[in-house]
Design goal:
By secondary structure, this protein is of the alpha/beta class. It has one domain: Alpha/Beta hydrolase fold, catalytic domain (Rossmann fold, 3-Layer(aba) Sandwich). It contains six helices and eight strands. The protein has helices at residues 12-23, 45-55, 69-83, 114-121, 138-143, 163-171, and strands at residues 2-6, 32-34, 61-67, 87-94, 107-111, 128-132, 149-153, 158-162. The protein has an eight-stranded mixed β-sheet with strand order 2-1-3-4-5-6-7-8, with helices on both faces. Helix 2 crosses helix 3 (69-83). This is Alpha/beta hydrolase.
């Protein structure tokens, strides 16, 4: 299993902080690829797919964790990756507001507030979702997922959790 992180357009330190937040939940991302957004635009499916082809020489199962502008390119790259005979275990979109999410693989949305959650769900809600409550700033969802409380919406139920715990639930299952 390989994990692909597709950040948005922001300081690299936010992604480092995001990964630290995941470690606090004992999430082990041992085979990790981070899209270098200084060389590949995160909103370009073509560029993300090219990056994957260069980095992964053999077929592999992939879990994609994307944020903001990274969601735009990552959903297209994930679909192309699967069309090439590879497997997408899960696709996680953090604050991919306004991005249609469709694919023949499990999709999960995380949002920094209820409005983003609700309005994004109109374009594909995903299998399970999370939204911050109380709302947080857009970048805080990525920077500090362990410190973002909210609601996990599952199959007909909802429960209080944090963004990092929600991701741990998805990644460790």
């Amino acid at each position: 299993m390989t994990y692909l992180i597709c950040p948005g357009i922001h300081d690299r330190k936010l992604t480092e902080s995001f990964l630290e937040g995941l470690k606090s939940e004992n999430i082990n991302l041992n085979k990790l690829l981070i899209l270098p957004v200084d060389r590949y635009p995160p909103y370009s499916a073509f560029h993300i797919f090219s990056f994957l082809e260069q980095q992964l020489k053999s077929q592999t199962e992939l879990t994609v964790i994307s944020f903001s502008a990274g969601v735009v390119g990552a959903i297209g790259a994930a679909s192309k990756w699967q069309q090439q005979g590879n497997s997408i275990r899960a696709f996680m979109a953090l604050d991919g507001w306004g991005v249609p999410l469709r694919g023949d693989f499990p999709i999960y949305r995380l949002s920094h507030d209820y409005f983003t959650h609700w309005s994004s769900a109109l374009l594909g809600g995903g299998d399970e979702s999370f939204y911050a409550d109380p709302p947080v700033d857009h970048l805080d969802l990525w920077r500090s997922p362990a410190q973002v409380p909210g609601w996990h919406l599952g199959k007909g139920d909802r429960s209080r959790t944090t963004a990092a715990a929600f991701l741990a639930h998805l990644l460790n299952s």
